[in-house]
Amino acid sequence: MSDNIDKIDSKDEAVTAATDESNGAGEPATGSNETATESNGGADVESIEFSVEYDDADDTDAEATIAEAAAEAVAGAEASATAEPASATGETGKANEADETDANTAATAANADHVEQTLKLSKVDSESGKTKTAADRAYAKTNHRLDKQVRDRVLLKSYPTFSLNHVTTTARKTGRHVLDNLSLAFYAGTLYAVKVLSDEDDPEQRATLMAVMGAFEPPTSGEVMSKSSNFTELELGELRGHRLGLVPQRYAVRGDLDAEGNLLYAMNGSGRGFLKPKPAIARDVLNSVGFSEATRGKKVRELSLLDQRRVSIARALCCDAETVILDEPTKGLDEAESAELLELLQRIARGRDPKRAVIIITSDDAVAEAAQKVYDLTD
């Protein structure tokens, strides 16, 4: 193609040169423009014909080549354009499929999580229900127990601390009813006197009553009760070691021990547990009955009769007895000592921690008059 262009340029140059020669021949060497013009106007200008020949074959081939290249380029572009959308479509499809798969996976995971949360909530509700049910049962059980305790307390309040219910005791030798259908009730917080005949008038009455009330001898008929419990239902250790505190006329204390030793002896034999050390309890109880510090450490047999009675009362109290029964506690004491001892018994009965039923068995009218309530068996 460049060769054809060069040929055309050569022909143009030749034509230009011929034209210039023709123009040079027609111009005068000298003279004015008007003369030249007139001269040229008067002469006939020779017509020069020229033609430009093109190499059609070459041009056609070049143009065909260019056209083919352009067509190929266009076809390639179209193919590329067609391929790119197809590729893009494939990638888009794959992306859509991936997105759809991811969406399905996410939905499945969400559903699984929802189900799991629902199961957890159900489990929590179930456990909460179980806990609530257990709590309700415990609450109901506690209420039932408290109600029972309240009923028992009301019932126990209606029961005396100590009582004899239609007790009859018949002497084996004589067949006499020493105690005949005897019913007595004793409540905590009160000092009682049970007036009996003197030993000269009836040598059996006082001793028999003391034996029955102290659980040494069962009645022939009837019941001896500690609150709501029959003596026959209780162990002797519980009766004498905790519920009953006995102060008989004889052998109430050991003369070979000191005061504290007597209380420790009783506490050790009771078989029960104590919240405080036993020596501390013994000292506290001895102080509560007015036992003098000056007599500490002395054997009981060396003490005065009043102090011996104090020790015997302290021994009856040291195991937290609910009922204290004393057989002629003022016997052998003078009037002042008797008054002092009776005042002590009144304090013990009215004590707040705890209150006790204190029962004196006596044939002495003066002692009976000191009590808050008297049962007379002399009639």
What's the arrangement of secondary structure elements?
Layout: H1 2-26, H2 33-42, H3 56-158, E1 162-170, E2 177-186, E3 190-195, H4 205-213, E4 221-226, E5 229-230, H5 236-243, E6 244-247, H6 259-270, H7 278-288, H8 305-317, E7 323-327, H9 335-350, E8 357-362, H10 365-370, E9 373-376
Parallel strand pairs: 3-8, 3-9, 6-7, 7-8
Antiparallel strand pairs: 1-2, 1-4, 4-5
Helix pairs in contact: 5-6, 6-7, 6-8, 7-8
CATH class of the domain at 162-376: Alpha Beta
Number of discrete helical segments: 10
Largest sheet: 5 strands, parallel
Overall strand count: 9
- The percent range for helix content is 55-70%
Overall pLDDT confidence: 77
Assembly state of the chains shown: single chain
In the CATH hierarchy, the architecture of the domain at 162-376 is 3-Layer(aba) Sandwich
User: Low-confidence spans: pLDDT under 50, at least 5 residues?
Assistant: 1-9, 14-47, 50-60, 81-89
Shape: elongated
Measured between the Cα atoms of the first and last residue, the distance is 169 Å
Order of helices and strands: HHHEEEHEEHEHHHEHEHE
- SS strand fraction: 5-15%
Main sheet: strand order: 6-7-8-3-9
Write the CATH fold name of the domain at 162-376: Rossmann fold
**Cα Rg:** 69 Å
Keywords: ATP-binding, Nucleotide-binding
Region (Disordered): 1-47, 71-100, 121-143
Biased composition (Low complexity): 71-92
Family: Belongs to the ABC transporter superfamily.
